[in-house]
Design goal:
Blueprint (H helix, E strand, L loop, with lengths): L3 H25 L4 H22 L8 H25 L6 H23 L4 H25 L7 H25 L6 H38 L10 H8 L2 H5 L6 E7 L2 H27 L5 E4 L4 E6 L4 H17 L2 E3 L2 E3 L3 E7 L7 H17 L5 E2 L1
Parallel strand pairs: 6-7
Antiparallel strand pairs: 1-3, 1-6, 2-3, 4-5
The structure holds guanosine-5'-triphosphate.
């Protein structure tokens, strides 16, 4: 069995290792403010552990180290919280900050009052446990509220802080309701629980940062940089995900639109003017589609739309609206106004008898018929 001094020492060493990792991350990725907060959290908890390790192994520490340890551990939680806020892009508002500062300094102030009045150290410990329960609970709440961030690694951090909250609450209840006195055995158990939780928290933070960077890269690879719509790779990934069609009650329709005589637009306005037409058209497209629909830049001036829960008749109405909207829209390029028309082909997805790529080919054929028949029309 490891003694308390050895456990405290290993806890200090692992905190030092995490602090070094965060310091490297901050140096490499200095635009990420949340990493600085988490570095601060790791540093505060390292200093707290160093103070604890430096003191002789004793269940009742003198007033100064006790105040330092309570303050540094609470500061570490406060910085964890502010780092998470920054990670999720949330504002750090005045009153929540004031509340967190009060929570951070309360155990150290309570320590000063209790020791100077010669009261039991259990009162301070209970106050610390309650403040730490609240801070851990707030952190779990922040993670649960940020569910739109689809990151698996944040679950690890939420589990670790839930475990912290429960352990602190249990500690406070035991002190208040059973008058239990801290012993070497309970101190050893709390250091072990803390060691497990702190490792999960910091590994979780590092993984969250990496997981988000990977998701961002994947999103970039799936997106057309000019228009912000999906590119071919992105849409193929979604359409080949069986969950996409499985989640729909009705049929899906494919609409492909190609801007007419775009070469002339480029020849008249230059390539940059052509780009403005493409981005303006993409903006119009986004405004007419529903959240469940998908829009893709299929080729140079060719756009593909996947209309969820839409049969052929509804797709025809949508395509006609899109054609009219494009024809009526005044595209503004460097003070000039130009008109553009679009030819459109439609096909309804028939998942029993053909693949999605075959449906796209049918829509493409319809589009070329629209071009052949004079452009600025809808064919199916
Ligand atoms: N500005 C700009 N032009 C592009 C881009 N991608 C492709 N194009 C241009 O789009 C034009 C497409 O020309 P064509 O395929 O001949 O078709 P079109 O002139 O639109 O004629 P129809 O489709 O038959 O009506 C070419 O001049 C390409 O250079 C782009 O990202 N930006």
């Amino acid at each position: 069995m490891l003694d308390l001094a050895t456990l405290n020492f290993s806890s200090t060493v692992s905190r030092g290792a995490f602090m070094a990792v965060f310091a490297i991350l901050v140096l490499r990725e200095h635009d990420k403010a949340y990493l600085r907060h988490w570095l601060g959290a790791a540093l505060a908890s390292l200093l707290g552990a160093m103070v604890l390790t430096h003191e002789p192994t004793n269940l009742t520490l003198p007033i100064l180290p006790s105040m330092q340890i309570f303050f540094l551990y609470m500061l570490s939680m406060a910085l964890s919280w502010s780092g998470l806020k920054r990670f999720y892009g949330l504002d750090l508002r005045f009153w929540p900050i004031v509340a967190m500062v009060l929570l951070t300094i309360s155990p150290a102030l309570a320590c000063l009052l209790v020791y100077s009045h010669g009261l039991s150290s259990n009162i301070v410990l209970t106050i610390y446990f309650l403040c730490a329960t609240t801070a851990s609970g707030v952190i779990v709440f922040e993670i649960l509220m940020a569910r739109r961030e689809d990151l698996w690694s944040q679950i690890v951090v939420a589990v670790a802080f839930s475990s912290y909250a429960l352990s602190f609450l249990l500690g406070a209840c035991l002190l208040v309701f059973t008058q239990m006195q801290p012993s070497m055995e309970t101190a050893r158990i709390s250091v072990i629980i803390d060691q497990i939780n702190i490792t999960l928290v910091y590994v979780g933070y590092i993984a969250m940062s990496g997981e988000r960077a990977n998701l961002k890269l994947r999103r970039q690879a799936d997106t057309d940089p000019l228009t912000g719509l999906f590119n071919r790779r992105g849409i193929q990934r979604i359409l080949h995900d069986s969950r996409y069609f499985g989640s729909q009650d009705k049929t899906t329709s494919i609409v492909i639109g190609d801007l007419d005589h775009f070469k002339t637009v480029n020849d008249t306005l230059g390539h940059e003017g052509g780009d403005v037409v493409l981005t303006t058209f993409a903006g119009c497209l986004k405004s007419v589609l529903r959240r469940s629909d998908l829009a893709v830049r299929w080729g140079g001036e060719e756009f593909l739309m996947v209309l969820a829960n839409t049969d052929l008749d509804e797709a025809k109405k949508f395509a006609e609206r899109l054609r009219e909207m494009t024809e009526r829209h005044d595209f503004q390029i460097c003070g000039d106004q130009i008109s553009v028309t679009i030819s459109i082909g439609i096909a309804e997805v028939n998942p029993e008898s053909e693949s999605i790529n075959e449906t796209i080919q049918r829509a493409d054929k319809a589009l070329y018929r629209a071009k052949r028949e004079g452009r600025n029309r809808v064919c199916y």
